[in-house]
Every structure is written in structure tokens, then in C-alpha cells.
Amino acid sequence: MSDRRLKILLSNDDGYRAEGLAALHAQLSTFADVEVVAPEHNNSAKSNALTLNAPLYVHKADNGFRFVNGTPADCVHIALTGLLGYRPDLVVSGINNGANMGDDTVYSGTVGAAMEGYLFGIPAIAFSQVDKGWAHLDASARRASDIIAQMHAQGLVQTAPWLLNINIPNKPDEQLGHNRLCRLGRRHAAESVITQISPRGETMYWIGSAGPALDAGEGTDFHATEHGHVSITPLRVDLTDHDHLGYWAQTMARLSSKGQA
């Protein structure tokens, strides 16, 4: 372990005023130099979106946090490409107000912020509380901070980049279970879209709630958190369907052959 203090870039998708961000910042600051660059407003479900068709502005709040009128990925991207002026050891996102498990990770702005750090070659972690409402937030922040401190002590931060998605049950310290390595579960399809009529007589559409867990068996993030444990899932960005490359190679060969006929 290096004696140098860890340098952490901290972001989120709930906005720079979110309680989860403040709680995690307070805990991490006890052993690391933490710089916050977070969205101005809630940006849930923005995934990896970058703002390319409008200017972005950075302001500093009265609590010392910097905030951006953009997405979570915008915040991390701007920070790493010029705003900070140095390369942090770790990118951390959260603590999110609600779970990011199973299929949620594809849409999650919390995960998107961490993934942006990973794409820049920096180890990154996304933290979320399982239930909304910030119950037992201090305990979640302590567990998140402890995980990072232990990883730093074991020399796991100054390494090749990795990306972890961590979900913490809303429980007090004494009721929080073990850290469990998990795979992502799966959800049923989302609930039906909700329609309303606007004051101008136009139909408005609201995206429905996420569906219930479909694959929540032992070994999944859903199963671990349901039993009071902290789920830790290593993620990868490579979406290639490696298992079926052989099938598609044969299919493409047939298509090419027909195209030349």
C-alpha cells in the first residue's frame, strides 16, 4: 500500500445536493482527497449519455462541490479531460437513491458515471442503496468507504482498470451482511406506459416502473441484497456475443456468398 493519500473523483446521478453524495464524500474524505463533480439536477436513467449539441458549464456550490448542467458521464468526462488537471486513482459514483441491479445497470446514470472513468482507464465503482429514501444512509456510506479503504490497502486501486457495481441494503451497521460477489440478475419487462392528457389536449406518455425480478436466484445481486448482504458485481463494457461468434461467422459467410451471386 502506498502512503500517498488516495485521489478520488466522486460523482453521481441524483445531483450535487443529494444526501447520498454528501454522506459518501464525508466518509471518503477521512482517508482520501476527494473532488466532487456532479450533475446540477437529477439525471437518473441517463446511462452513458454525453451532451454533444449544447455547451456545458461548471459552477461551484457553497458546499465546495462542483456541478455541471449535464449528465453524469458529462461530469466525469469533463473532469478527466481538463477540469481536474490531474489523473485520479479512482472514480466513484453514488450513493444512488435506489437500487441499480440486474437490467437497471444498462440504464443507470450512476453506473454510467463510473463506466466513463473505466473507459478512461481508471478503476471505478458505482454505489447504490437498495431502497429509496436514504434510510440508514450513514451505515451504507461507512460500508462503501470501508470497501474502498480495504481495496486501497491491498493495492487493488493502482492497477489495471476495473468496474464494480455495488448495492447496499438499507440496514444499520449491525444488520448489514457480508460483501458478496454476484452476477447480475434479470427483470421482467417494464410495467405498461402511463398516459395522461395535457392541458392542450395532447397525449403525454410516462415510462412505467421497472418490472419485478425474473432471475433472482442464488448468486444474483437480487438474491444477495434480499438476504441483507452487499452485492458486488464486476462489470465489463465489451458487449460482443462471444459465445455465438462462430454461428454468426457461418451466417455471414452464407450472406456474402449469396450477395456475390
Compact overview of the structure:
The chain has one domain (6-187, 213-259): Stationary-phase Survival Protein Sure Homolog, Chain: A. 29% of the residues lie in helices and 23% in strands.
CATH class: Alpha Beta
State the secondary-structure class: alpha/beta
Number of domains: 1
Number of helices: 7
Q: Radius of gyration from the CA trace? A: 20 Å
CATH architecture: 3-Layer(aba) Sandwich
- Which sequence of strands runs across the widest sheet? 3-4-2-1-5-6-7-13-8
Broad shape: globular
What is the count of β-strands? 13
Distance between the termini: 63 Å
What's the SSE blueprint?
Blueprint: E1 6-11, H1 19-28, E2 32-39, E3 58-60, E4 66-68, H2 72-83, E5 90-96, H3 104-107, H4 109-119, E6 124-129, H5 137-153, E7 163-168, E8 179-181, E9 186-187, E10 194-197, E11 203-206, E12 213-215, H6 221-226, E13 230-235, H7 245-259
Parallel strand pairs: 1-2, 1-5, 2-4, 5-6, 6-7, 8-13
Antiparallel strand pairs: 3-4, 7-13, 9-12, 10-11
Helix pairs in contact: 1-5, 2-4
Describe the structure.
- The protein is α/β, with parallel strands linked by helices and 261 residues long.
- The chain has one domain: Stationary-phase Survival Protein Sure Homolog, Chain: A, CATH 3.40.1210.
- Helix content is 29%, strand content 23%.
- Helix 1 runs parallel beside helix 5 and helix 2 (72-83) packs parallel to helix 4 (109-119).
- The protein is globular, with a radius of gyration of 20 Å.
